[in-house]
């Protein structure tokens, strides 16, 4: 399957938050984080991982029972709604297609397909479905863990997290790329650290991703930093480079110079949204509330 880029401008910031003090809901705000309002309203669930379609029509997101949030991918279900919150529909139920776990759904550049992981807990694979979650096609058939897929802007490649062998420890999690139908597998990272969440820049020249850089500190969670490399794997460097927990990079759609992410600094309690220039430099904090704000994307 090849998908071509038809990106339209979305001057909004989508994220999830538990600022209602009850559960996590999907929110939309201005690109600078101002004027947020909720798009979902169901306290039976935690709603998280919003992904707006490139054509601006839809958002897909995950739901888990309230209190679960993103801590158990065995309880997730995939939902779709209009970008104004209407036409809410569950498109892949919990354990749909016989999958024990599912997650990380992202849109193809032409908004016709979704890529995601699904399958058993010990050997999930990468799948592509139609935009409504139907017609799942398995793209990988590998041992170990295969998760965190994302499309390149031209729709010709998929980056994902996998392992070089079937016995797959987190320290073996590496960034791979392949053609969108699963051929031409290439390993990009080999750093003996846990790697996650690859994200292509809008021009396709770079990939940002998440690295578990230290296992000490932060109540045993260690430090996680955002790295950037050329799309062929060269020039890998630490962008955030601190002792905080930085998570899930997503590029600004207005160009290749800004990365959105969420972060909790040492000694802090709540996740907040940030942006950082890809060239380095000071971070900009986009939210500052006594609650979590997570998974930002434009």
Range of strand content: 35-45%
Write the element-wise H/E pattern from the N-terminal end onward: EEEEEEEEEEEEEEEEEEEEEEEE
Tally of DSSP β-strands:
24
Widest sheet: strand order? 3-2-1-24
Q: How large is the count of helical segments? A: 0
Main beta-sheet strand count, sense and barrel state: 4 strands, antiparallel
What are the segments in which pLDDT stays under 50 over at least 5 consecutive residues?
Answer: 4-8
Shape: globular
How would you state the average pLDDT, rounded?
95
Radius of gyration: 18 Å
- What is the terminal-to-terminal distance? 25 Å
What's the multimeric state? single chain
Helical content stands at under 10%
Specify the structural class: mainly beta
Quick synopsis:
Residues 4-8 have low confidence and may be disordered. This protein is globular. It has strands spanning 12-17, 25-30, 37-38, 45-52, 58-65, 77-82, 89-92, 101-107, 113-119, 124-130, 137-138, 147-151, 157-162, 174-179, 186-187, 195-200, 206-214, 223-230, 237-238, 245-251, 258-264, 272-277, 284-285, 293-297.
Summary tags:
mainly beta, 4-stranded antiparallel sheet, 0% helix, 45% strand
Task: Please provide a written account of the structure.
With 298 residues, this protein is mainly beta. Helix content is 0%, strand content 45%. It is built from no helices and 24 strands. The protein has a four-stranded antiparallel beta sheet, with no helix packed on it. Strands 4-5-6-7 form a four-stranded antiparallel beta sheet, with no helix packed on it. Strands 8-9-10-11 form a four-stranded antiparallel beta sheet, with no helix packed on it.
């Amino acid at each position: 399957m090849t998908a071509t880029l038809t990106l339209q401008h979305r001057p909004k910031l989508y994220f999830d938050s538990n600022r209602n003090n009850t559960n996590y809901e999907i929110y939309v705000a201005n690109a600078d984080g101002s004027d947020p309002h909720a798009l979902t309203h169901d306290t039976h669930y935690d709603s998280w991982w919003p992904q707006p379609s490139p054509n601006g029509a839809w958002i897909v997101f995950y739901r888990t029972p309230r209190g679960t949030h993103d801590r158990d991918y065995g309880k997730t279900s995939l939902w779709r709604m209009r970008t104004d919150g209407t036409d809410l529909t569950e498109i892949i139920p919990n354990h749909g297609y016989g999958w024990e776990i599912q997650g990380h759904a992202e849109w193809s550049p032409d908004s016709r397909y979704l890529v995601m992981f699904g399958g058993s807990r010990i050997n999930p694979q990468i799948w592509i479905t139609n935009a409504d979650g139907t017609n799942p096609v398995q793209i990988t058939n590998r041992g170990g863990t295969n998760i965190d897929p994302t499309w390149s802007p031209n729709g010709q490649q998929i980056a994902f997290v996998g392992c070089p062998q079937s016995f797959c420890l987190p320290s073996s999690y590496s960034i791979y790329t392949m053609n969108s139908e699963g051929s031409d597998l290439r390993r990009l990272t080999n750093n003996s650290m846990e790697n996650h969440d690859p994200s292509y820049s809008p021009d396709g020249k770079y990939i940002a991703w998440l690295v578990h850089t230290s296992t000490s500190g932060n109540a045993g969670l260690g430090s996680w930093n955002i790295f950037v490399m050329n799309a062929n794997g060269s020039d890998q460097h630490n962008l955030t480079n601190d002792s905080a927990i930085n998570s899930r990079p997503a590029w600004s759609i207005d160009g290749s110079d800004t990365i959105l992410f969420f972060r909790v600094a040492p000694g802090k309690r709540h996740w907040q949204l940030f942006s950082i220039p890809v060239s380095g430099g000071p971070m900009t904090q986009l939210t500052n509330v006594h609650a979590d704000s997570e998974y930002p994307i434009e």
